[in-house]
Amino acid sequence: MMSKLIFSPIQCFQLSGDRLPAPAFGLFITLVFFSLSYKASAQEETGIKEIVSAITGVFTEDDDDLSELTERLSFYSQHPLDLNSASRDQLKELFLLSPLQISSFFTWLRKNGKLKDILELQSVDGFDSLTITRLLPFVIVREVNNYDLNKLTKGASELLLRYGSLLEKQKGFKEKSGSRYLGSPARLLFKYKYNYNDLLTLSIIAEKDPGETFFREPVKSGFDFISGSLARYKTGRFKKIIIGDYSLQFGQGLSLWSGSSFGKGDDVAGVAKKDTGLKPYASANEYSFFRGAGVTYTILKNIELTSFISIRNLDAALKQTTEGTYTLSAISTNGLHRTVAENRNKGTLPLLFYGAALTYNNNNLDIGLTTSFSDYQHEFITGSQLYKKYSFKGSELNNLGIHYNYTFKNIYFFGETALSRPGGTATLNGAMASLSPVVSLVVLYRSYAKEHVSFYNKGFGEGANTANEQGLYGGIHIRPSKKWTITASGDFFRFPWAKYRVDDISSGYELTGSLNSKPNPAFLVTLSLKTKHYEQNEGTSLPVNPLVKVRKDNYRIEARWKLNKKTELQTRTEISRYGKGKRTIEYGYMVYQDVDYHPLSSRFSTNLRIAFFSTASADSRIYAYEDDVLHGTGSGVYSGEGIRTFLNVSYRFSRQLRAWCRYAVYHYPGKTSIGTGLDEISGNSKSELKIQLRYQF
Questions:
Q1: Do residues 593 and 610 touch, judged by C-beta distance below 8 A?
Q2: What SUPFAM superfamilies does the annotation carry (predicted)?
Q3: Which tens digit of pLDDT belongs to each residue from 128-176?
Q4: How far, CA to CA in Å, does 513 sit from each of 266, 328, 488, 530, 553?
């Protein structure tokens, strides 16, 4: 029976001529696996996949850049963090602990002294068995004065090379004239990192996107994007010195935050951000970073000053005025330079960015003040659309933010108030509490003025920017026993001004809930639901666009279990529902089966997914986290009617050298083309190949 339920890629394509399985068939598969799973007796190992899935959310709807998260987890899995000497910033980088748990941990250390055994974490307030289990692969407890002399005298280097390409030719590579892609379909990535005892780090990243040229016009130097940084730590009063590319993360992300950030997830406490201040940039994202120099200096024992300056050329489409000056309406943030037009806009907007952050940290109280100045060479103008009325105008912008967090017994208070000139204010305040070992709660209120402007922000909310939004969020986490976990959240929001595709004041709400059952260490089943109600224009072709109600629901059932020490299975069935105004309600479904094979003593490991999906349109599409080559994680989009399969293979040649290979394909029966514009593919299949090498020395 088991062999009939785990489809091979050949069997999937043989099914492509028939109708895809109905949702009931997917549910049947899920239930059959549930009945078999109780026979599994192997101990479940918590991996990066489970952690990423929990942090990014039950129903991820963004193709987030998760490389920073996975790289940190990968680093600490090979170089475990000593809890007796770990800093707050290092614990924040793990992404595994809430701010309240971090505060409780340091309170415990002050009262009880250094940890003698990692099992003592059980006595820290807020540390349940799940938290400790997730921590174990990434932390250790080292005895006092028991240091690894090799670590103190020898650095560690890592070299990573990645190649990826679509196997079918897109329209942009076929065109000989007009709008076309100038380069090859290959995506190339080069990364080099050096770490010397957490005192010195060097990082170099180079990337070529598909369609960009390589060692020929207009990029004769090779890679279209090159990033690098040199960081020195713990040099006298200088806590950090970074030259090159860096990120800044302060407060709750209202005024100054670059790089990755995660909000609504399985852990409701994740809505409170864990800022790490100044740090080297470690992503291939071509927008969200600063280039220049930054330092963090200890003025007094509990007071630190971070100052920074950045000079960069951003991408923008410029328009010349009658006076001979240039203006723009928006910055291009995708980092793509494939066509003549995209290369024409490359680096046309010089930006001088500088500022400082003053922070006070004393046990349970943190207070910070940030100020930054942006001086653009060309002026921003607003478009004629109603929703752009309060967009940024001019060439100079000043952002000021005041943030705090305070722990009082078992309650963690946090917040930030930001001011922009020109513009308005934005404020966010929240609290989380551990009401008992079983129940934790979080509440958050936000109010962002429609005039507020910040180009570097990641504040909690529905919108892409910390502007034009008011909202109240509440979440609860209940763990009545080791076998059961319940989470629920509600977010009620209002937009005081028009938005994109919304020509009036609007409002809505989002409710989520999940129930986890873990009857034995080898098996986990999750039931999840999400419903989101909001308002949107009825149709763009109407002379007057009245607002209509929109509702989207997702229902999911998922199971994970270990058959033995080598094999882990995961199966999921998800159904989506979408309705807008008086239109016919549409449905979608997706069912997949994952098989992970990881022999502990073998050089070889692999994982496979077979998925069937059918959605009426992109409005009812479904997202799901997908395994990839190391640090290549992201969300897969399941839209239309088709089959999705991918196979990842990893082989360790030696302790230093490891290789990954990934083949992934979408197959759409009945389609004659996939995609639009220059990305269009003739045929009904879209496949991708990735090859990656990592050498550590």
A1: yes
A2: RuvA domain 2-like (SSF47781)
A3: 877 888 888 889 988 655 444 444 457 889 999 999 999 999 999 987 7
A4: 9, 43, 4, 7, 12
SS3 (DSSP) at 651? strand
- Separation of alpha carbons 459 and 254, rounded Å: 5
Q: Which two tokens stand for residue 267?
A: 């852990």
416, 427 contact by CB (below 8 A): yes
Question: Could you tell me how far CA 79 lies from the centroid of its own chain?
Answer: 23
Cβ within 8 Å of residue 619, ≥6 positions away? 552, 578, 580, 586
Q: How far is residue 611's CA from residue 592's CA, in Å, rounded to a whole number?
A: 4
In Å, how far are 99, 116, 120, 250 from 113, measured between CA atoms? Answer: 20, 9, 11, 29
What gap in Å lies between CA 29 and CA 7, rounded to an integer? 11
CA gap 308, 295 in Å, rounded: 7
In what helix (H) or strand (E) does residue 4 lie, and over which residues does it extend?
Answer: helix 2-5
Q: What is the DSSP letter of 632?
A: -
Percentage of residues in the chain having pLDDT higher than 90: 65
Separation between Cα atoms, residue 341 and residue 339, nearest integer Å: 5
C-alpha distances out from residue 655 to 78, 354, 648, 659, 694, Å? 12, 43, 20, 12, 11
SS (HEC) of 75-140: HHHHCCEECCCCCHHHHHHCCCCCHHHHHHHHHHHHHHCCCCCHHHHHHCCCCCHHHHHHHHHHEE
Bridge partners (DSSP) listed for residue 661: 649, 691
Any bridge partners for residue 214, and if so which? none
* Six token digits for residue 98: 């809430």
Band of residue 300 on the pLDDT scale cut at 50, 70, 90: very high
H helices, E strands: number in the chain: 11, 34
Res 144: pLDDT:
52
The amino acid occupying position 647 is L
Give the residue with greater pLDDT, 23 vs 218.
218
Helix axis angle, 48-56 to 67-78, nearest 10°: 140
Q: Which residue has the tokens 């007071």?
A: 303
Query: Strand, coil or helix: what is 163?
Result: strand
Tokens of 269: 């406490």
- Residues 254, 418: Cα–Cα separation, whole Å: 6
Contact 645, 636 (CB under 8 A): no
The residue among 619, 539, 610, 542 whose CA lies nearest residue 576 is 619
545 DSSP β-pair partners: none
**pLDDT of 266 above 70:** no
Give, as one character, the DSSP assignment of residue 621. -
Question: Are 36 and 2 contacting, i.e. CB atoms less than 8 angstroms apart?
Answer: yes
Query: Whole-model pTM above 0.90?
Result: no
**Cis peptide bond upstream of 210, omega within 30:** no
Task: Give every CB contact of residue 584 below 8 A, 6+ residues apart in sequence.
Answer: none
**Helix then strand then coil, % of the chain, to nearest 5:** 15, 50, 35
Question: How many other CB atoms are there within 10 angstroms of residue 153's CB atom?
Answer: 9
Question: Which residues are CB-neighbours of 477 under 8 A, at least 6 positions away?
Answer: 267, 268, 269, 439, 440, 441, 485, 486, 487
Indicate the length of the chain as a whole number.
Answer: 697
Sequence-separated (6 or more) residues with CB below 8 Å from residue 636: 623, 624, 625, 626, 644
pLDDT (tens digit, 9 = 90+) per residue, 62-73?
A: 555 677 777 878
Between CA 525 and CA 40 the distance in angstroms is 13
Q: Could you report the per-residue pLDDT of 191-250, keeping only the tens digit for each?
A: 999 999 889 999 999 999 999 999 988 888 889 999 999 999 999 999 999 999 999 999
How far apart are alpha carbons 256 and 245 in whole angstroms?
A: 16
